[in-house]
Amino acid sequence: MQSLTEEQCLDWARSRGHGFEGEPGFCHLQPSDHRTIRFDIPSDAGRRVALARLLWEALGAGQPEILLWVTGWSIWPTGEHMPLASSVRRDLGEDRPLATAPGHVFRIGEDDDAISLLTVACLFFWDCYLLAPSGELALFLSHDEFAVVHARNPDASIGLERRLDIFGLPVRVDS
Q: How many CB atoms lie within 10 A of CB 17?
């Protein structure tokens, strides 16, 4: 895993076709040329762990690299345990605080590490992005317990839609 500062995250995302203008935020991930899939994040912690694995397998596995960028944390401080998050990051080789290095680039062979950090983000209801290197797919998880996937190619999202359906999460699709 390689850790990135916020500025490095913006550079990484923009250089790969993710259209962030100004500060990152959900509103900056709504391009008109993407198919949008929305779904709620389960309230049950076990289902959130399973969702993290499902999302990684559908969007991250097999990518040459992918950025997991945490943009909001401690929004619900009673629902998180920052020593756990810091421990996971430290085990992945990052000692700097999340505020200093919120980006995490994972490469092939680092699936378990990526799932671990994505699980923490899902469990703690952090705002974060999972951005594919091609600019074709982008996931946003919100502290408000919903998620949005943007797919430039509608066919790229069909596998995820099927997995979410099997998982029992209803999706709303905007084309």
A: 15
Q: Quick check: 10 and 16 in contact, CB under 8 A?
A: no
Element containing residue 82 per DSSP (H, E) = helix 82-91
36: part of which helix (H) or strand (E)? strand 35-40
Residue-range domain boundaries for the chain: 2-174
Is the predicted pLDDT of residue 19 greater than 80, yes or no?
A: no
170: Cβ contacts below 8 Å, ≥ 6 apart = 39, 40
Whether the CA torsion 1, 48, 99, 142 is positive or negative: it is positive
Cβ-proximal residues to 69 (8 Å cutoff; 6+ apart), any chain: 4, 9, 13, 24, 102, 103, 104, 128, 129, 130, 131
CA 8 vs CA 99, 100, 163: distances in Å: 13, 11, 32
pLDDT tens per residue across span 147-160: 998 888 777 788 88
Determine the Cα–Cα distance for residues 18 and 134; give it in Å rounded to an integer. 9
Angle, vertex CA 151, rays to CA 127 and CA 89, nearest 5: 35
User: Which pTM value belongs to this model?
Assistant: 0.92
